[in-house]
Every structure is written in structure tokens, then in C-alpha cells.
Amino acid sequence: MDWKYNPDDYISAHDQRYIDLAERCECYRAARLEYFRARVKTMIRHVSPMVHDALADMGLRTADVIDRFRVPDDWPEKSLRTHDTFRPGGYDFLSGGRLTDGGGSERWHRRFARRHQGVAGCVICDPDDRDDRDEKLGFRLCGEGLEIALLTSTYLLTSSAGKGRLHVAQQLPLTIGSAMVGRPVGAIVSHPLLAGRDYPVKRVMQPVGGTSLIVFETGSTAVANE
What we know:
- The protein is α+β, with helices and mostly antiparallel strands.
- It is 28% helix and 20% strand.
- The protein has one domain.
- The protein has five helices and nine strands; from the N terminus they run αβαααβββββαβββ.
- The radius of gyration is 23 Å and the shape is elongated.
């Protein structure tokens, strides 16, 4: 039987150290991800009803969407940030181009996705699997709640602390805005997440930039153990 030298059969001590290090790093990444997901699940105390409706449409549970959350690069060295990344005045959903601008839509979607990075969150496709240029749907940890953000070509719908915010790309006349107060928001904007739900409008504001902000009550529901 002839034997031939094959350098691939031999691993130097130097190479072996790198292999061992890579294996340890892979074990660390897996353990870090498992701990991150477990940590987020224990932090969530309540969920927006709009989150429940969106997940039900996709056949998902809250645990399923948390398993899609990306681990922030600086965690656990720094604690998880749970601030509202879509708070009024903190995010201009029209800047950077709109979907109707064609080439600007990619920048627009990237800005939306970045709001779910650095915090516990994720962006997924819309429930109906339509062209991904139509809608972007995201979930994120905000305070002690699991909240939603839905971006379309004409409005941004978000939730936080028992309230919903509908930021529309149109400046509504003050008389129309006043008439909306007390009415269900689903009677104003047609969307499956709002239709048939008693989410009363509390106030209508007009930030700068030719837009309107409609704030409505949604309440929240306690998280069931899954």
C-alpha cells in the first residue's frame, strides 16, 4: 500500500489554536444569543393589541418574533436600550425619500430598519407577502412592552405604552383634526390592524413638515406564559 504525504492531514499547533479559538467563539455567540432571548422574554410584561393582531395574521407567537430579534453589538457590555425609538420629534418618517420617490425607497427602508438596531427588535415582511416596497413591519422592546411599527408610503403606525400613533404624510385642516377626536381611528384610516377595533383618537397634532400626528388609545394586554 502506497502512502503519500498530504499536508491537509497535519494541523500545526498554531493552526490548532485558531481552530480552538473559533470553536470557543462560536460557543460564546450561541450562549450569548440564548441568554439575550431569555432576557428579553423576561423583560416583556405587556404587549400592544396591535402586536397580537399582526402576529395572529402571520400565525406567530410573541416568543417566535423575539427569536428573530438581533443581538445589539454592544450587549451585554452595555444594558439593553428600551427607549421609544419612534417617539414624536425623534424620527421623521418622511426624510430620506418616500416610497413614491422610486430610488429613495431603499434609503427610506434602511432608516426604518436602523430604528430596530441597537435595541431589541427586528423588521420582517408584511403579513400578506406583498411586494416588500409596499410595507415594512417591525417589532421592538420599548420599556416593558412589545411594540409594533408599520411603515407604508403614506403613513407610519407605531405603538408605545398603551397608545398608538399614526403619522400621516398630509397636513390635516384643524377643523378636520378636531372632528376626529373621540372617533375610532379605524374609521379614519383603513388597515386590518385598525379595522373593527375601538381605538379612540385622543388628539391630533401638526408637526412641522406638512404632516399630521394622530394619537389614539389602544391599551395593552399582559403577556401569557408560552
